[in-house]
Each structure stands twice: as structure tokens, then as C-alpha cells.
Write a structure and sequence with these properties.
The structure is a single chain. By secondary structure, the protein is α/β, with parallel strands linked by helices. The chain has a domain of 214 residues: NAD(P)-binding Rossmann-like Domain (Rossmann fold), CATH 3.40.50. It is built from 10 helices and 13 strands. A 6-stranded parallel beta sheet has the order 2-1-3-4-5-10, with helices on both faces. The chain has a 3-stranded mixed beta sheet with strand order 11-8-13. Strand 1, helix 1 and strand 2 form a beta-alpha-beta unit. It is globular and about 60 Å long. The structure holds guanosine-5'-diphosphate-beta-L-fucopyranose (GFB).
Length: 318
């Protein structure tokens, strides 16, 4: 029987984050009865002993490791020490304690930025570590690559059943709308919304508008996480995406339309473009029988509605 049965004790690390909270919603919707969560105040995942104590006392059987320090292109570029250290600490502590205290399956969440900056498109799993990374986020990427290798090493040496999923750029309810460290999609929702309200003549989009990105709704990602926890048991990483990308200019047009803004879009090429293209090859995932459900335009419209309804509690700092 799969370890993923409805009574299994399932720990979601990072349940306040956009992906962690979507995984919790998905587990509850599918009838899992024993979902464990801890806030950062209750359990600081950077503290090795605290993490060990938690695993020893709670004995989860399944772990979704969605806790991470994440951010958009500028935050990655500005805080390299935080991105590499916090991610290394969190994942090392959780993976080690999960193995030590008998977890039956661990699902590690990586990122598509682990692939080389100029990887052949769409990006296959075997292009990992074949060429240099994109400099703006190499610190985060190196930490995530170390997480993948940690999972593989524990599988080889200890027979630990850890799998590593590589999501494309995610978006959805609970996203970060702070313009200093948001990813592009929530940043544009906020910029167009505030320009509409303020009657501003133009919205500034960073970079040249030509980079291409693939966007997956976080509810689709959470669904894929549960699907792969049930159906995937291998050392190799596996990509999770929707198989289609858009240019940043096309994305801006979609968000502009969803928000109903009528002014101009201008580009600030003093801001970095980052990787020119990041489209994942999802043929391995498709072959297992999974596919996404939420089209991009529909997803953007629903996130805009979420933003409007949650403007008070959305993360808006700047
Ligand atoms: O989403 P984003 O910050 O991350 O930026 P990456 C994607 C593209 O959108 C870049 C442009 O070309 C940005 O220059 N962009 C345009 C903007 N306007 C904006 C804006 O207002 N805010 C932001 N943030 N971007 C991240 C990595 O790379 O992707 C992380 O830094 C992680 O490590 C994440 O892997 C998924 O796709 O370039």
C-alpha cells in the first residue's frame, strides 16, 4: 500500500507560504485526516535540534518540504547570503531528521532556476549541472541543487525514499505582492491595479519584456505534489510545469486586461532580465498521467479577485 493513505501523518513544512498552504488545502480536500503544521514561531526550521525534537515527538510518515526562502529576481540578487544559507539550513535539517526518524516518503520542492542559464528549451531534467547558472539567482539555485543532491545521497546510502520536484514559476492566492521581493506576476497585478486606481498614465515593467517564462497555478502544483507523492519513486528529479510559456510583454498584456487598466506599458531596461527563457520539458510528468487544469488567463483573473478580496492581509509591504 502507498504510504499516502488517508490516515497517514503528513507534515507540510512551510504551510504559511503560497505552495505550502495550497498543499494543505489539497490534502484537506482529498480527505487526509492527519495534516501536521507548525508556524515559524513554534518551530524554527533553521535550528537543527528543534527540528530533530519535532520529528522525534511527532513521527510524521510523509513530508512535503515546501519551506524555503524565496523571492523575485531583485531580492535574489540583493540578498545572496540569506538565500544560500537559509535554504541550506532548512532543507538539511528537515531531510536529515526525516530520514533519522523513519519518514516513509519526503517530497522536496526545488525550482526551475537550478538549470543552466542557456539550457536547451524546453528544459529536460538531464540538463542539470551541464553549464553555468543565471548569476542573479545562482545562490538560491546552488542551495536547491544541494537539496536535490542531499535527497539523492540519502536514497543511495540509506534507501531513504525522497523525491525532488522542479516546479516552474508558480503563482496563486497567498502570493507575495511586496514589490521589493515579489515575482513578476503578483508584482504586475499590484502595479496595474494601483495605476488604475490612481489614474496613472503608465506602468513600468522591469527589463526588456522579451524574457519568456512559464507560469503554473499553485493549485495545479499542489495537485501534482500529491500525485507524485503517490506515483513517483525515483532518484531523478522531475519537472512540473504546464508546457507553455509567454513573454513578459505578453504577460503584462494579460494582467493589464484582467485588471482593466487603460494606460501605457513602459519598460525599464536598467532592471535585469534574468534567464532569457525557462520552459520546462514536462514529458516525463505527462507520461505518468498528470496534467494541469487552470489556463493562465483564468488563473490571473482569479488571483486578481483574491488580491482584491485580501488586500488588507496580502503581503504588500512596499
Ligand atoms: O519573476 P521574476 O522576478 O523571476 O522575474 P525569474 C521574471 C521576469 O519578469 C524578469 C521581469 O525578466 C523580470 O525583469 N519583470 C518585469 C519583473 N517587471 C517585474 C516586476 O515588477 N517584478 C519582478 N519581480 N519582475 C526567479 C528567481 O527568477 O524565479 C528565483 O530569481 C526563482 O530564484 C523564481 O527561481 C521562480 O523568473 O527571473
Amino acid at each position: 500500500m502507498s504510504a499516502m493513505h488517508l490516515q497517514a501523518r503528513i507534515y507540510v513544512a512551510g504551510h504559511h507560504g503560497m505552495l505550502g498552504s495550497a498543499i494543505v488545502r489539497q490534502l484537506q480536500a482529498q480527505g487526509f485526516a492527519n495534516v501536521l503544521v507548525r508556524s515559524r514561531a513554534e518551530l524554527d526550521l533553521s535550528q537543527q535540534q528543534a527540528v530533530a525534537d519535532f520529528f522525534e515527538s511527532q513521527r510524521p510518515e510523509i513530508v512535503f518540504l515546501a519551506a524555503a526562502k524565496v523571492g523575485g529576481i531583485l531580492a535574489n540578487d540583493q540578498y545572496p547570503a540569506d538565500f544560500i544559507r537559509e535554504n541550506l539550513e532548512i532543507q538539511t535539517n528537515v531531510i536529515h531528521s526525516a530520514w533519522r526518524f523513519g519518514v516513509k516518503k519526503l517530497v522536496f520542492l526545488g525550482s526551475s532556476c537550478i538549470y543552466p542559464k542557456f539550457a536547451a528549451q524546453p528544459i529536460r531534467e538531464d540538463s542539470l549541472l551541464t553549464a553555468p547558472l543565471e548569476p542573479t539567482n545562482e545562490w538560491y539555485a546552488i542551495a536547491k541543487i544541494a537539496g536535490i543532491k542531499t535527497c539523492q545521497a540519502y536514497r543511495r546510502q540509506h534507501g531513504f525514499n525522497a523525491i525532488s520536484l522542479m516546479p516552474t514559476n508558480l503563482y496563486g492566492p497567498g502570493d507575495n505582492f511586496d514589490l521589493n521581493n515579489a515575482h513578476v506576476l503578483p508584482a504586475l497585478i499590484r502595479k496595474f491595479h494601483e495605476a488604475k486606481l490612481g489614474g496613472l498614465p503608465q506602468v513600468v515593467v522591469w527589463g526588456t519584456g522579451t524574457p519568456r517564462r512559464e507560469f503554473l497555478h499553485v493549485d495545479d502544483m499542489a495537485d501534482a505534489c500529491l500525485f507524485l507523492a503517490r506515483n513517483y519513486d525515483a532518484e531523478s528529479i522531475i519537472n512540473v510545469g504546464c508546457g507553455e510559456d509567454v513573454s513578459i510583454a505578453e504577460l503584462a498584456a494579460l494582467v493589464r486586461q484582467a485588471v482593466g487598466y487603460e494606460g501605457r506599458v513602459v519598460y525599464d531596461s536598467s532592471k535585469p532580465d534574468g534567464t532569457p527563457r525557462k520552459l520546462l520539458d514536462i514529458s516525463r510528468l505527462k507520461a505518468l498521467g498528470w496534467q494541469p487544469r487552470i489556463p493562465l488567463a483564468e488563473g490571473i483573473a482569479s488571483v486578481y479577485q483574491w488580491y482584491l478580496a485580501n488586500i488588507e492581509r496580502a503581503r504588500l509591504k512596499m
